[in-house]
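Reminder to self: tokens first, then the designed residues, so the page reads top to bottom the way the pipeline ran.
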């Protein structure tokens, strides 16, 4: 088939003209960069560079203002503050006619009602009807405490020992329960028991309470506390035990995406960007935890010698 008869070739071409970047065009169209490059190169070979340059000139932004397109974006407060807000500004720099309104965390029914356009959820909705769900990260957490808390209250050596400790727990907007068990590979702990619990809906509150030596948490993402772990201000406990992974996803209404190319372009870009950033962060977090456990073993060896 001639490149000029391939619809995807033209989609790559138009997206490249809009973004002035073939890599951004590949992200918008959710295809591999090498494939996008091959399609565009074949089209240029058939049509000739002067024609391509002419199309690019025709697609140059005009001086008159564009009609604004507002995307209502909902996310957990800590993710909105520490990650997504910067990405939304970045997208607005690429596409000046797109702006954002950031809203508090919502559930699947809020999305179906059209209260928001795109939402970040920490679990896949049990009922996917009417929704498009795109996973961007699966991550887990480990038990954490400060050395000062452990000095005062002792160090748990198994999940069963947590019944002697204060639990700092998360009850997410889209989850009716707190963490019930920990996992060591395929092994499950007994249902967790605590001396007393403090339950909150956001991770930044968990972080503050943890740093104030109020207890042990099993729900705090390493993304929010990695530097403190690296510096030894916070230490991981019960090596090998983790909670059930979060299943982070971007969700929007199917009918909205079918109706709006601008919304679809944004969700594809945001999903690809979040996946790439999450993969890099996961490797960094894994290394932070491994290093912390190794330091703890060295300290134990010194104490025993």
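Designed residues (305 positions):
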């Amino acid at each position: 088939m001639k490149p000029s008869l391939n619809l995807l070739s033209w989609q790559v071409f138009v997206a490249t003209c809009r973004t002035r970047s073939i890599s951004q065009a590949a992200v918008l169209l959710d295809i591999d960069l090498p494939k996008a490059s091959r399609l565009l190169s074949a089209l240029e070979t058939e049509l000739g560079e002067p024609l391509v340059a002419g199309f690019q000139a025709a697609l140059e932004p005009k001086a008159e203002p564009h009609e604004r397109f507002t995307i209502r974006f909902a996310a957990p407060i800590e993710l909105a503050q520490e990650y997504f807000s910067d990405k939304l500004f970045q997208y607005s720099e690429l596409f000046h006619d797109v702006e954002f309104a950031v809203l508090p965390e919502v559930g699947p029914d809020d999305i179906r009602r059209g209260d928001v356009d795109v939402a970040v959820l920490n679990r896949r909705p049990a009922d996917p009807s009417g929704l498009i769900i795109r996973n961007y990260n699966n991550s887990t957490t480990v038990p954490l405490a400060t050395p000062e808390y452990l000095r005062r209250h002792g160090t748990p050596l198994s999940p069963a020992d947590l019944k002697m400790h204060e639990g700092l727990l998360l009850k997410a907007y889209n989850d009716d329960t707190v963490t019930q068990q920990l996992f060591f590979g395929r092994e499950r702990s007994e249902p967790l028991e605590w001396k007393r619990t403090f339950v909150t809906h956001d991770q930044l509150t968990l972080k503050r309470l943890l740093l104030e030596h109020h207890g042990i948490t099993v729900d705090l993402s390493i993304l929010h506390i990695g530097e403190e772990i690296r510096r030894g201000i916070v230490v991981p406990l019960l090596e090998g035990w983790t909670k059930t992974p979060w299943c982070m996803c971007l969700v929007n209404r199917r009918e909205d995406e079918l109706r709006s190319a601008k919304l679809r372009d944004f969700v594809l870009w945001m999903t690809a960007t979040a996946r790439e950033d999450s993969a890099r962060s996961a490797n960094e977090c894994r290394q932070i935890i491994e290093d912390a456990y190794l330091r703890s073993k060295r300290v134990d060896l010194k104490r025993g010698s």
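The two ends are 74 Å apart (CA to CA).
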